[in-house]
């Protein structure tokens, strides 16, 4: 999933997507330990998707904090 697509989503949608990706990563790791995973690249892509989602969520939180500071002054 592209970062540009993620930026268009709401915070609630991002949190839901994050949970789905984390669950998928857990499943992939379990299947890997059993030798069932054929596409190891999917694990890498899932990790990168999780990182992208977390980055966008953190950027939004920082913006909110900065806006609160500016409104107090």
Q: How would you summarize the topology of this molecule?
A:
Blueprint: H1 3-7, H2 11-34, H3 41-72
Helix pairs in contact: 2-3
Explain this structure.
This protein is 84% helix and 0% strand. The mean pLDDT is 92. It starts with a helix and ends with a helix. The chain has a single domain, classed as Helix Hairpins (Orthogonal Bundle). The protein is mainly alpha-helical. The protein is elongated.
Structure in a nutshell:
With 73 residues, this protein is an all-alpha fold.
Count the DSSP helices. Answer: 3
pLDDT under 50 segments (min length 5)?
A: none
Q: Provide the structure class.
A: mainly alpha
Order of helices and strands: HHH
Give the overall shape, derived from the CA principal axes. Answer: elongated
**CATH-level-2 architecture:** Orthogonal Bundle
**How many individual β-strands?**
0
Rg, Cα atoms, Å: 16 Å
- Approximate strand percentage: under 5%
Portion in helices: over 70%
Mean pLDDT: 92
Instruction: Give the CATH level 1 class.
Output: Mainly Alpha
For the largest beta-sheet, the strand count, sense and barrel status come to:
none
- Annotated CATH topology: Helix Hairpins
Domains, number = 1
The separation of the N and C termini measures 39 Å
């Amino acid at each position: 999933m592209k970062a540009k697509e993620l930026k268009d989503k709401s915070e609630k949608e991002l949190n839901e997507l994050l949970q789905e990706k984390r669950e998928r990563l857990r499943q992939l790791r379990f299947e890997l330990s059993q030798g069932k995973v054929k596409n190891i690249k999917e694990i890498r892509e899932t990790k990168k998707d999780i990182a992208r989602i977390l980055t966008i969520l953190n950027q939004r939180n920082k913006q909110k904090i900065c806006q609160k500071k500016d409104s107090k002054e």
